[in-house]
Write the structure tokens for this entry.
Amino acid sequence: MTDFTPWQSLFGGALIGFAAVLLMAFNGRIAGMTGILSGLIPPLAADWPWRAAFPAGAIVAPFVYMAVGGSFSFDAPVSPAALIVGGFLVGIGVHFGGGCPSGHGICGIGRLSPRSFAAVATFMAAAFVTVFVIRHLIGA
């Protein structure tokens, strides 16, 4: 079970939105991780430095948070094998969905993209069905 953290969640969401706006304003790019990471796979994109900095910031940010006195824990309720299979399935969905949840959900909806509204509705419906099946039908 996760903890109810409305203020941290609100602040984190605002920071993500602000970062997306800054990236669009200064680079003219959408802050979708799939698109960003695709430019880091050889052959590297010409603008690879900012692409490397973006996920590096996402990795370093929790450590900065802890350094200033914050704390968090990460507990995965499933095995590492299940995490790998889940990641693979998400990758397939990203390919067929034309982007990742961060790109569609944060930036696409913010730009009022009909394709992003459809993609996010599909992501959410699949998540609801998955949670229902796992918690109520399988009983995990």
